[in-house]
User: Fold this.
Amino acid sequence: MKGHSPQTKTPIFWKVLQMKDGFLINKGEYAAVPYGNSGYIILHNGQQLEKLCRTESSARKYINDHKKGKSLAEIAL
Assistant:
């Protein structure tokens, strides 16, 4: 994009743009970022959701369910 450089973007967003193994959905509204050997961390509008998915397919399903507003399990605090 004209006039935009890596310095003008938030650090996490720029790292997501540069990643090679994760993926973006809905024009970057959702992102699944690899987290070590544990799976994928799910981001929604730059905020981490309270979910760690073990596989890419489970991450895609979780994001799809979240977009539809389905009731999702929550991690007990």
Remarks:
- DSSP finds two helices and four strands in the chain.
- Residues 25-68 form one domain.
- Residues 66 and 72 are 7 Å apart (CA to CA).
